[in-house]
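Hello,

Following up on my earlier ticket. Below are the two sequence lines again, exactly as submitted.
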Amino acid sequence: DTEVTQTPKHLVMGMTNKKSLKCEQHMGHRAMYWYKQKAKKPPELMFVYSYEKLSINESVPSRFSPECPNSSLLNLHLHALQPEDSALYLCASSHPRSGSTDTQYFGPGTRLTVL
Amino acid sequence: TQLLEQSPQFLSIQEGENLTVYCNSSSVFSSLQWYRQEPGEGPVLLVTVVTGGEVKKLKRLTFQFGDARKDSSLHITAAQPGDTGLYLCAGSLGGGADGLTFGKGTHLIIQP
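Thanks for your patience. The regenerated structure is below:
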């Protein structure tokens, strides 16, 4: 089983709203990632969690707040977003070891629209 | 500067033709993945290559990792309309829990 699930599939929010994106995997992976993808562009890394600890933050604005409650779950809390934050948000997971085991498996994404 | 150069960015060919997509870098990768992505969906893993010179086949798709682990190619034989999509190469530089470095992607259209 190489499944990563994400909810919701679609989200529309106003600039004053607070919402959360959720990601879950049951592959025993200990590294989880958030990526942002704009139309016709490749994914861009936002955050990396390794063994439930934030290991990489790619200078993401504080209106995005990640959380890793346990080894299977990853959340992205959203507050006071801007219309330019509208994008496909992708979650991925992997074993935190090098070689073939660092293959990242992606979820289906959450399509976020900020009005 | 793009760390992983992927070419071509756009390709439209007729059903039955062959094609090759290239990913090149001056950096050495511990592993390199190829993904295929449909609009509005997440990237789906096609293959991971790890060893320099490695060749992997997936039906009509052949993936090769360069001897120096700096480049990779994807060759599709007898392309079919179902092969249409965005193909992404992505490399892991340090290994472990590291973000992937993506190429810009190849938008492939196979016309019947």
